[in-house]
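From the methods appendix. Each design record in this collection lists the tokenized structure first, followed by the designed amino acid sequence. Records were kept in a plain field format so they could be parsed without special tools. The example shown here is representative of the layout used throughout.

RECORD:
FOLD TOKENS (697 positions):
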């Protein structure tokens, strides 16, 4: 081993609770069910019942149902793994809160992976086919029917449903799960649900509700952290129920020195754990910032594992992150084969929203990816240190089933410097999309919206200005016809504007392709030791106009190669993400067709039309070449560097536009293309009128 990471043992998390009795596993039922050609859902559910009854939340079942019956809103706090997400919807179903074919219980999750995997588990527990009585709906994928009684969905998806059904009449109960995460969309939902609840209560009280309408709306807010008082206050002092959890002691280690490369440290720490403890001592869960990190560590571990001496158990590497296709999620939850140790590589998705059994060792890189927004630089993705509260949640994952170990890849002194909690997303990210949704849902004065945490006036104004510049709002701040059209798309307004522009420009097919391609983090694999090789392979797709058209070339070549795995490997193409791209494209095509667009309109080889369309949405993300060879952003006069992975890296063109800024050690523009400065001026006369006249004169 090249390097050894030194950890010092420091702390043991306390635990009051006793370990749960190891009940007998109901294997016999499962075997019986799987022997039949048809799945026996009832037997499956029966088999899972003892597990359900062993969960800490089970004893609180009656009290939970009683409180929810009594109060319009209830806040429930319970340790991760206590059974909130899987059990409470079922308790409400069993207690008659949903009427078959009439009303349903919605459960929102901040992440799609959580929504789909938990729906699958709950369908098994209820004893129904996924998509029937229990289902899920996430962006670009609907696995539910009008008979669905428990529906898991992302918070963003429920927000979209409000546009079509402003009083959410389909639902008798909405459960806002993982509310402690305070995602932008959860926060907006909180405000909208509060309003919907009030309106429905008034309708029920004065009898103005139509015959057979949904009646009052119950709201359940669920959180894994203790600071639930804020939710209670926000909902007029709603009662807070605490569910005791079970936690075994976890020995926590810090590194003795700061780590310069947390990916390498994570890789080495996993190897250290694996070689120093028997694989029967439990699986390993590693927290990293995002898909790129995960795929890098996955590769490092795969290479190391190839050189294990005989007799060392193998590693089963299971990545899990938001964009992972559902077909690949299931592996994380399955037990590893014999003489194999499971290593789960996860983002903060595994912090509170997913419970993975068998974990005894946690490796915490101490970072997560957050969306940041600064009016001068626009929206950016940042890898930032986590909060103390997140660090504790991550540690807790090691002590779910027995005493465990947590290896923090940072020093104790660094831990002391971490903020207690993360800042709610609404305070730090771009608001244009949700402002557009609020407007479309009939909230005309968004400045007066009942926010639990109010974003700054500056951020709100900036979002409204962007919507105005995109022609989604008129000069009185009212939604335009275009704005309403744009709100149909589950996309940032800039993208829906680009799609709109593609109709006139006659390049809808190319634009939808590229928008789909931009929906994933990376399209290529770039192994550190094969950088030159992968660069050479990518040259085949490279367009001198930049990344947008390069990506388009890649998609065309991928389609021509019939998505062949060998072809992908030879060209360092990320297959996992390409499959996601195709899914997104299919959904966008469907939506555009429904809106009456001709999705086959193609511009052939006149690809300038495509770039101009992108500028009609991304005129905010432009930079001009300076005499000293650097690029300076038009909107904030910041120096912007072209990302090394870009087709335009090292090139000097008069102007560029980009999809996104990523802040690592400096501001990097990702997905960059060349633009004619005159096109930029044309794209938004409202913003760059002066530039237009100076360029044309
Ligand atoms: O929401 P909360 O963190 O309180 O717990 P949960 O997600 O409802 O999970 C309760 C239990 O269900 C976990 O401890 C797991 O043992 C089990 N579970 C499972 O086995 N497989 C899943 N896909 C989800 C949950
Ligand atoms: Mg949960």
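DESIGN:
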């Amino acid at each position: 081993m090249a390097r050894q990471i030194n950890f010092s043992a420091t702390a043991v998390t306390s635990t009051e609770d006793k370990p749960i009795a190891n009940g007998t596993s109901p294997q016999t039922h499962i075997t019986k069910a799987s022997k039949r050609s048809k799945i026996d859902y009832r037997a499956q559910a029966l088999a899972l019942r003892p597990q359900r009854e062993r969960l800490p939340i089970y004893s609180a079942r009656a009290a939970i149902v009683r409180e929810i019956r009594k109060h319009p809103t209830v806040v429930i706090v319970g340790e991760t793994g206590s059974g909130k997400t899987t059990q409470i919807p079922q308790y409400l179903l069993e207690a008659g809160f949903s009427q078959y074919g009439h009303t349903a219980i919605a459960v929102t999750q901040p992440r799609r992976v959580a929504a789909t995997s938990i729906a699958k588990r709950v369908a098994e527990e209820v004893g129904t086919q996924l998509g029937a009585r229990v289902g899920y709906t996430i962006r670009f994928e609907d696995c539910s029917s009008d008979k669905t009684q428990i529906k898991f969905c992302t918070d963003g998806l429920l927000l979209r449903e409000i546009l079509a059904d402003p009083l959410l009449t389909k639902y008798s109960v909405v459960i806002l799960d993982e509310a402690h995460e305070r995602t932008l969309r959860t926060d907006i939902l909180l405000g909208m649900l509060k309003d919907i609840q009030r309106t429905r209560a008034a309708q029920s009280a004065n009898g103005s509700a139509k015959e057979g309408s949904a009646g009052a709306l119950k709201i359940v807010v669920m959180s894994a952290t203790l600071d639930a008082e804020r939710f209670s206050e926000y909902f007029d002092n709603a009662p807070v129920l605490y569910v005791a959890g079970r936690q075994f002691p976890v020995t926590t280690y810090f590194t003795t020195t700061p780590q310069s490369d947390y990916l390498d440290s994570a890789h080495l720490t996993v190897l250290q754990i694996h070689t120093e403890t028997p694989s029967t001592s439990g699986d390993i869960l590693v927290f990293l910032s995002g898909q790129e990190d995960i795929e890098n560590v996955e590769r490092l571990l795969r290479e190391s594992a190839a050189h294990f001496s005989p007799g060392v158990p193998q590693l089963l590497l299971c990545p899990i992150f938001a964009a992972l296709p559902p077909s690949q999620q299931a592996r994380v939850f399955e037990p590893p084969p014999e003489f194999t140790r499971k290593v789960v590589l996860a983002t903060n998705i595994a912090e509170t929203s997913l419970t993975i059994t068998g974990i005894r060792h946690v490796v915490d890189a101490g970072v997560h990816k957050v969306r940041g927004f600064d009016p001068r630089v626009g929206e950016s993705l940042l890898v930032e240190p986590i909060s103390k509260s997140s660090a504790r949640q991550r540690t807790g994952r090691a002590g779910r089933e027995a005493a465990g170990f947590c290896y923090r890849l940072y020093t104790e002194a660094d831990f002391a410097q971490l903020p207690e909690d993360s800042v709610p997303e609404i305070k730090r990210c771009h608001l244009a999309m949700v402002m557009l949704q609020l407007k479309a849902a009939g909230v005309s004065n968004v400045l007066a919206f009942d926010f639990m945490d109010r974003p700054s006036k500056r951020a709100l104004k900036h979002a409204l200005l962007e919507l105005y510049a995109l022609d989604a709002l008129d000069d009185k701040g009212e939604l335009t016809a275009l704005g309403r059209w744009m709100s149909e798309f589950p996309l940032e307004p800039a993208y829906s504007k680009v799609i709109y522009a593609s109709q006139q420009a006659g390049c809808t097919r190319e634009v939808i392709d590229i928008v789909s391609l931009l929906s994933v983090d990376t399209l290529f694999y770039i192994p550190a030791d094969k950088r030159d090789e992968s660069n050479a392979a990518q040259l085949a797709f490279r367009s001198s106009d930049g990344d947008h058209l390069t990506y388009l070339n890649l998609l065309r070549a991928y389609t021509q190669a019939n998505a062949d795995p060998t072809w992908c490997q030879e060209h360092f193409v990320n297959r996992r993400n390409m499959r996601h791209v195709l899914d997104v494209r299919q959904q966008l095509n469907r939506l555009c067709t429904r809106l009456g667009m001709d999705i086959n309109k193609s511009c052939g080889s006149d690809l300038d039309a495509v770039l101009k369309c992108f500028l009609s949405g991304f005129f905010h993300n432009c930079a001009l070449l300076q005499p000293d060879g650097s690029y300076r952003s038009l909107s904030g006069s910041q120096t912007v560097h072209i990302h090394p992975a870009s087709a335009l890296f090292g090139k000097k063109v008069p102007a560029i536009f980009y999809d996104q800024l990523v802040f690592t050690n400096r501001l990097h523009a990702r997905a960059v293309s060349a633009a004619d400065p005159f096109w930029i001026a044309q794209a938004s006369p409202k913003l760059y009128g002066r530039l237009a006249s100076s360029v044309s004169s």
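APPENDIX NOTE: The first helix runs from residue 27 to 35.
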